[in-house]
């Protein structure tokens, strides 16, 4: 019998819709099953018992770091966390050698990388599942948590209009992949110089529709969900030019009033209040940003369970 292929979780565009749906359903099921439990209590089935996840961070993190750590504990496993600059990786040890070594020591690796290509190089030689914890090009774990949050309001994203306002960045790219696989309408309002990567549009699949506009009000009109992110991502160097270019793309109450009356607001966090979003919106009745942050744990658990051969 030939061995099962390693289940890397690198990008949503690499997975079929049924797999993405199964991961989301697993997240929902596990979240519901532990309602009211203390956060440190392990799930009854402990599918990661006896397994260790390594987490390698080339960039800072709060949500990804804590949610993967909590997720592994709830699945009955353990973690080893390292900043890349504390590893020989930070002194130039090749990505491939690091991947071969960690593959002998742990059961899965989550990486937050500056360069997406380094994540891909790592996965090409790793003998254990590799998970994308954010790169310059995508953030698939975040977008699964976003979809879980949107669908908790009722209905499928296939029947929703999503409005992304701001930078065509890594989170936006994964949202494009998600809509390409699962359906729905995604309207992206961004300045002309900050479009999403057109490769992402091309390989996203055609289950849904993606439109790019340059007017935030046009994108938000009648939308079920308005999403934004920082105007200056980790690694971006053109801070002042960005702040100037994105100024017309702030999500404020006037913009939210253009959306559907039941629309929700999402932000992957960390937020720069007063830049991409006002306090009134992020702290207001439409905001679901802390449900979204919590959902990172539930999604991470489902991704890990899938990587370890469960779920589907
Ligand atoms: N949203 C997100 O990935 O947050 P962190 O950068 O804190 O991990
Ligand atoms: N686009 C942001 C997301 C942070 C979670 C960044 O890459 O910095």
Task: Report what the structure shows.
With 312 residues, the chain is an alpha/beta fold. It has two domains: 12-138 and 297-307, Rossmann fold, CATH 3.40.50.1370; 140-292, Aspartate/ornithine carbamoyltransferase (Rossmann fold), CATH 3.40.50. Helices cover 38% and strands 14% of the residues. The chain has twelve helices and nine strands. The strands form two sheets. It has a five-stranded parallel sheet. Strands 2-1-3-4 form a four-stranded parallel sheet, with helices on both faces. Strand 3 (108-112), helix 4 and strand 4 form a beta-alpha-beta unit. Helix 1 (17-33) packs across helix 5 (140-152), helix 2 (63-74) crosses helix 12 and helix 3 packs across helix 4. The radius of gyration is 19 Å and the shape is globular. 49% of the residues are buried. The model has no long low-confidence stretch (mean pLDDT 96). The structure holds phosphoric acid mono(formamide)ester and norvaline.
Instruction: Estimate percent helicity.
Output: 25-40%
Would you identify the regions where 5 or more consecutive residues have pLDDT less than 50? none
Number of strands: 9
Strand order across the biggest sheet? 7-6-5-8-9
> What's the CATH first level of the largest domain?
Alpha Beta
What's the architecture of the largest domain, going by CATH? 3-Layer(aba) Sandwich
The CATH H-level homologous superfamily of the largest domain: Aspartate/ornithine carbamoyltransferase
**What is the CATH topology assignment of the largest domain?**
Rossmann fold
Number of helices: 12
Beta-sheet strand percentage? Answer: 5-15%
Mean pLDDT score: 96
The end-to-end distance, rounded to whole angstroms, is 19 Å
Order of secondary-structure elements:
HEHEHEHEHEHEHEHEHHEHH
């Amino acid at each position: 019998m030939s061995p099962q292929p390693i289940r890397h979780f690198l990008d949503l565009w690499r997975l079929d819709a049924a797999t993405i749906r199964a991961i989301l359903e697993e997240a929902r099921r596990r979240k519901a099953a532990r309602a009211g439990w203390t956060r440190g209590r392990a799930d009854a089935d402990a599918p990661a018992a006896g397994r260790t996840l390594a987490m390698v961070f080339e960039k800072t993190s709060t949500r990804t770091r804590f949610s993967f750590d909590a997720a592994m504990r709830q699945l009955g496993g353990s973690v080893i966390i390292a900043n890349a600059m504390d590893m020989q990786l930070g002194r130039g040890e090749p990505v491939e050698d690091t991947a071969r070594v960690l593959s002998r020591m742990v059961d899965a690796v989550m990486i937050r990388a500056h360069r997406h290509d380094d994540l891909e190089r790592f996965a090409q030689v790793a003998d254990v599942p590799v998970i994308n914890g954010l790169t310059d090009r995508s953030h698939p774990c975040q977008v699964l948590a976003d979809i879980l949050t949107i669908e908790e309001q009722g209905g499928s994203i296939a029947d929703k209009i999503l409005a992304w306002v701001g930078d065509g960045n890594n989170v936006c790219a994964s949202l494009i992949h998600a809509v390409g696989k699962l359906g729905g309408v995604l309207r992206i309002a961004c300045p002309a110089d900050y479009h999403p990567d057109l490769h992402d549009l091309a390989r996203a699949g055609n289950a849904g529709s993606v439109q790019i506009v340059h007017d935030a009000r046009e994108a938000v009109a009648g939308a079920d969900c308005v999403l934004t992110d920082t105007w200056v991502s980790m690694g971006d160097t053109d801070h002042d030019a960005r702040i100037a270019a994105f100024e017309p793309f702030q999500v404020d109450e006037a913009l939210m009033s253009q959306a559907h009356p039941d629309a929700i607001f999402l932000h992957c966090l960390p937020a720069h209040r007063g830049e991409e979003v006002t306090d009134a919106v992020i702290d207001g009745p439409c905001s679901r940003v802390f449900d979204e942050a919590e959902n990172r744990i539930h999604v991470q658990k489902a991704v890990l369970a899938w990587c370890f051969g469960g779920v589907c």
